[in-house]
Description:
With 119 residues, the protein is mostly helical. It has helices at residues 4-29, 36-42, 47-63, 70-90, 98-118.
Amino acid sequence: MAPPIVRRAAPWILRALLTIGFLVPGITKLTPQSGWVERFAGWGYAAWFVTMVGSLETLGAMGLWVPRLRQYAVALLAIIMLGAAYTNLTHPPITAALRPAVFLVLLVGLAWSQRASLN
């Protein structure tokens, strides 16, 4: 069993890492000169999809800090990362799927640590 300070700190640390990891790319997807539209087009997605994903990443990152929304934010961000993993597994380089996989592990860790703190 982890010491109490680790159990209390883990959700905060995971939320901070995930917020940075989703907020920065989410906001850049909302800027026209970021190059995301070209990347998404190369994967076969429409330009509007970049705006939608960026908006959802940004909202999800903020939702991690609202207790009533946290489980929904984790689910939303996990769905986005599953889509990102699929996209990266079906388009070279396949190693790009590592980033979404890491984020999925962090999201599961956050959900688990939140659930553990409720018991």
